[in-house]
Amino acid sequence: MDVTPPISFPSVADQLTARQIGLILFALTLGGFAIGTSEFASMGLMPNMVASLGVTEPQVGHLISAYALGVVVGAPLLAILGAGWKRKTLLLALMGFYALGNLASALGPTYESLLVFRFIAGLPHGAYFGVAALTAVAISPPNKRGRAISLVMLGLTLAILIGNPLATWLGQMIDWRWVFAFVAIIALVTGVLLAVWLPVGIDGPKARPLDELRAFNRVPVWQALGIGAIGFAGMFCVFSYLAPTMLDVTRVSPAWIPLGLAGFGVGGVIGNFVGGWLFDRFQLRGAWMVLAWAIVALLLFPWLATTLPTILLATVAIGLMGALGPILQSHLMDVAGDAQTLAAASHHAAFNTANALGPWLGGMAITAGLGWTSTGYVGAATAVVGLLVYAWARHTARAEATALACELTR
């Protein structure tokens, strides 16, 4: 009997041209740039916000922590709630939500209202990056999927390198509230571009929230998130209070602050490539190398903060901690099993836990009278704890490998 093979139709992604893929990736990267600029803007604008709101630097640090806590809460929550949505619909909703949160931040009349609005603005952050990464993979050829994800993440890195210094300069020239207003505009532009360029049907298999939660709830997953949440806090501890440190310790004019912030961006760009190389060669073992580097760089920060050339060198050195990102993201993909969407979003929740923890601990040290440069020592301590979590993860991995070997020899 003649059996006619079933006709296979190309998927929506297969029908996209190289130009269409490039435009979609550009829009996804632009969204990442908007999110990164908003996330880090308060750090460079700290002196302006202190003067405008009549609060202290540690209190502005709490605004940074409020945003980060929004990411921590929103990343897993929105990833689960949006599991049944079309990716295009979810991306548009997340960008619209982000625009509203930043517009509210621009208009917030009091410090207390800003705490609420910064928390709300942080909610869609992690879910956006998780869905954007999955969308980038879906529209890209198999041999270019890693590059596609790196382009989405490039928006975040460019925000540190370009967006944050520009935001600081804009806040100094006009008013810090305009920065959040412009971020809202960029988020809306991203939504429009995605509405026009991203076709309907770029979706993966439907994920059931309970299945993802079961696969996600494994010790190696939580260990990887713990390394990022604690070990990376040192960078944010220094980064958050860099502006007042440069003014009061380095004793430079405010015009130099954007350059200091850009140093973190330079280190982050280099670290992004270094982290990928380390994971390819050493897998999770690359994490201890980054954390060891971080401990040394953070301990040296109080001495390097006294002159302009050395503090700029310090910001680049500490920015290299960004190498931890690709290492942990890649490791999570290996250990998350069927919880890929939730893991992709929670990776950003972990790093924003660090973004909340760092400014909070640094603010406590500063409030206690230990000085602006105490952030280096506090950051080094968090890197040490991150190294201990790494050692625990390695012990768990070895124990699982030994148990598996015993099972195979029975």
Structure commentary:
By secondary structure, this protein is an all-alpha fold. Helix content is 80%, strand content 0%. The chain has 18 helices and no strands. It has helices at residues 18-44, 46-53, 57-81, 87-107, 111-122, 125-139, 145-173, 176-197, 209-216, 219-231, 233-240, 242-250, 257-282, 286-304, 308-319, 324-335, 340-367, 374-409. α13 packs parallel to α15. Residues 1-10 have low confidence and may be disordered.
Detail the topology: elements first, then pairings:
Blueprint: H1 18-44, H2 46-53, H3 57-81, H4 87-107, H5 111-122, H6 125-139, H7 145-173, H8 176-197, H9 209-216, H10 219-231, H11 233-240, H12 242-250, H13 257-282, H14 286-304, H15 308-319, H16 324-335, H17 340-367, H18 374-409
Helix pairs in contact: 1-3, 1-6, 1-7, 1-8, 2-3, 3-5, 3-6, 3-17, 4-5, 4-6, 4-8, 6-7, 6-17, 7-8, 7-13, 10-16, 10-17, 10-18, 11-17, 11-18, 13-15, 13-16, 14-15, 14-18, 16-17, 17-18
Index terms:
410 residues, mainly alpha, 18 helices, 0% strand, globular, disordered N terminus
